[in-house]
Amino acid sequence: KGLENGTHMRMSQIVAEVTGREVVALTGPSHAEEVAIDVPTGLLAACKNQEMAEFVQDAFMADCLRVYTSPDPIGAELGAALKNVIALCAGCCDGMGYGDNTKAALITRGMAEITRLGVAMGAEAETFSGLSCLGDLTVTCMSPRSRNHRAGILIGKGMSAVIDVGCCCFDLGNNNCLLDIVDILVFNNQF
User: Fold this and answer.
1) How far is it, in rounded angstroms, from Cα 136 to Cα 79?
2) Of 1, 48, 83, 103, which is the active-site residue?
3) Alpha-carbon distance 16 to 31, whole Å?
4) 125 vs 12, 47, 76, CA distance in Å?
5) How confident is the model at residue 161 (pLDDT cuts 50, 70, 90)?
6) Are the C-beta atoms of 47 and 53 separated by less than 8 Å?
7) pLDDT tens figures, 16-30
8) pLDDT category, 63, cuts 50, 70, 90?
9) Can 83 be counted among the known catalytic residues?
10) How many CB atoms lie under 10 A from the CB of residue 40?
11) What does pLDDT average to over the chain?
12) pLDDT above 60: residue 152
């Protein structure tokens, strides 16, 4: 998930360009370790081609995994990518000792900004209130399993920009999604 540096292309666009095939984006609030042990989970299969979205829905549907479909891959992918910026900030709130009120305001306003940016990039506003954004945003901002949230906590506590979070390294200098968002806002006269 994310945006390609420089082109701002979504991952499905890159795969489609390379393979010449249509792509279904599968997104939503899902920690792999929970899916693996059959914790009930909801996902979104997004593609302009409804038949392909339904094919992926049928392929992944299970007793503990519910898959919904959407004709808006732009919104689904942008929600999944942009929520990470808000999760990093939510972690900073926690690391600085702010309370639930502050984090709730941040998440709510972040959701509004993600929606505005997504609509400016061609997404449908209602997509952002579903699993691929609001659901994913919620789990990523609240879960101790979220790398972005954990990194934000450490930053909020004053740690350096390069942080070892569990088994992976989070480098703010290499968080190109943040830079791409600024480029897009400038390009769309939103900033």
Assistant:
1) 8
2) 83
3) 26
4) 19, 16, 11
5) low
6) yes
7) 999 999 999 999 999
8) very high
9) yes
10) 10
11) 86
12) yes
C-beta of residue 110 within 8 angstroms of C-beta of residue 79: no
Residue 163 has pLDDT above 50, yes or no: no
Altogether, the residues listed in the chain come to a count of: 191
Flag whether pLDDT at 189 surpasses 70.
no
- HEC assignment per residue over the chain: CCECCCCCCEHHHHHHHHHCCCCCEEECCCCHHHHHCCCCEEEEEECCCHHHHHHHHHHHCECCEEEEEECCHHHHHHHHHHHHHHHHHHHHHHHCCCCHHHHHHHHHHHHHHHHHHHHHCCCCHHHHHCHHHHHHHHHHHHCCCCHHHHHHHHHHCCCCCEEEECCEEEEHHHCHHHHHHHHHHHHCCCC
Residue 180 has a pLDDT of 54
Q: Are strands 25-27 and 41-46 parallel, antiparallel or unpaired?
A: antiparallel
The CA distance from 162 to 142, in Å, is 22
% of the chain at pLDDT higher than 90: 70
Q: How do 162-165 and 65-70 pair as beta strands?
A: unpaired
